[in-house]
């Protein structure tokens, strides 16, 4: 089993739609969780950190479910500019971070 | 402006040649990382360094070498022993002072193609 697993997609949604991605992790002792956004052929950039039970930033909401070992990302009112690959990142211990392979989102007009 | 500078952005290399990718940061971060990304795959950790003169192997260190002689610099050498070196290489630093807070901040990456 991979340490971090994501549905690769692509998720094709119309503008204005709500879309959700899930990410599962295998190490139950993991303490820190992140969502990064990566545009085509660019470096990943932090979208949100998820430190406790979840948090919200504008149209984006991240949730953590420790019992089931998954985190989710909800995007409301999708914009064309939201089209990107969303990477789930888990910090199981120390300074090690493990990346999922990413979920591709395509928002269409 | 503070940031991470990677160079070169694009590099072509013949098989059997070593190549060194530069990574310089002026953010005063202690921990630095090198990742490799292949199409359709997540980032895989090559090496990381938590302090000057110390570094640790990541998951795919074979065929790579690093040094950390200065806090600002963490160059990666891709040696001829690396079987499939064509990839997108990303250097990053950890923004937090401790292990529990912070985030990974990335440079713009170096794209290496072996001909």
Describe this structure in words.
The complex is a heterodimer of chains A (109) and B (115). By secondary structure, chain A is mainly β. Chain A has strands at residues 4-6, 11-14, 19-25, 32-38, 45-50, 54-57, 60-65, 70-75, 84-93, 96-99, 103-108. In chain A, strand 4 (32-38) and strand 5 (45-50) form a beta hairpin. Chain B is 0% helix and 49% strand. The mean pLDDT of chain B is 92. Chain B starts with a strand and ends with a strand. Chain B is an all-beta fold and 115 residues long. Chain B has strands spanning 4-7, 10-13, 19-25, 32-37, 43-51, 54-57, 64-66, 76-78, 87-94, 104-106, 110-114.
Defining traits:
heterodimer; A: 109 residues; mainly beta; six-stranded mixed beta sheet; five-stranded antiparallel beta sheet; 11 strands; 58% strand; globular; B: 115 residues; four-stranded antiparallel beta sheet; 49% strand
Radius of gyration of chain A: 13 Å
- Give the largest interface pair and sizes: A-B, 23 and 24 residues
| Tally of separate helices of chain A | 0
Question: In percent terms, what proportion of residues of chain A is strand?
Answer: over 45%
Oligomer, anyone? heterodimer
Unreliable parts of chain B? none
Give the helix/strand class of chain A: mainly beta
**Distance N to C terminus of chain A:** 37 Å
Number of helices of chain B: 0
Q: Report the strand count of chain B.
A: 11
- Please describe the biggest sheet of chain A, giving its number of strands, its sense, and whether it closes into a barrel: 6 strands, mixed
> Mean pLDDT score of chain B, rounded?
92
Overall geometry of chain B comes to: globular
Task: Give the helices and strands, then pairings.
The complex is a heterodimer of chains A (109) and B (115).
Chain A: E1 4-6, E2 11-14, E3 19-25, E4 32-38, E5 45-50, E6 54-57, E7 60-65, E8 70-75, E9 84-93, E10 96-99, E11 103-108
Parallel strand pairs in A: 2-11
Antiparallel strand pairs in A: 1-3, 3-8, 4-5, 4-9, 6-7, 7-8, 9-10, 9-11
Chain B: E1 4-7, E2 10-13, E3 19-25, E4 32-37, E5 43-51, E6 54-57, E7 64-66, E8 76-78, E9 87-94, E10 104-106, E11 110-114
Parallel strand pairs in B: 2-11
Antiparallel strand pairs in B: 1-3, 3-8, 4-5, 4-9, 5-6, 7-8, 9-10, 9-11
């Amino acid at each position: 089993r991979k340490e971090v697993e994501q549905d690769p997609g692509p998720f094709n949604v119309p503008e204005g739609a709500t879309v959700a991605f899930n990410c599962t992790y295998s190490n139950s002792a993991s303490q820190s969780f992140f969502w990064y956004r990566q545009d085509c052929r660019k470096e990943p950039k932090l979208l949100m950190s998820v430190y406790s039970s979840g948090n919200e930033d504008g149209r984006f909401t991240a949730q953590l479910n420790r019992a089931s070992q998954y985190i989710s990302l909800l995007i409301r009112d999708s914009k064309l500019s939201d089209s990107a690959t969303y990477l789930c990142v888990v910090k199981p211990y120390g300074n090690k971070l493990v990346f999922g392979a990413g979920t591709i989102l395509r928002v269409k007009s | 402006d503070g940031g991470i500078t990677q160079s070169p952005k694009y590099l072509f290399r013949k098989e059997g040649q070593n190549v060194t990718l530069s990574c310089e940061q002026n953010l005063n971060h202690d921990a630095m990382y090198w990742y490799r990304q292949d199409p359709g795959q997540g980032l895989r950790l090559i090496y990381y360094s938590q302090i000057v003169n110390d570094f640790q192997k990541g998951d795919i260190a074979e065929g790579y070498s690093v040094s950390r002689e200065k806090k600002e610099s963490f160059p990666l050498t891709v040696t001829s022993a690396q079987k499939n070196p064509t990839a997108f290489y990303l250097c990053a630093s950890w923004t937090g002072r401790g292990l529990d807070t912070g985030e990974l901040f990335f440079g713009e990456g170096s794209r290496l193609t072996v001909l």
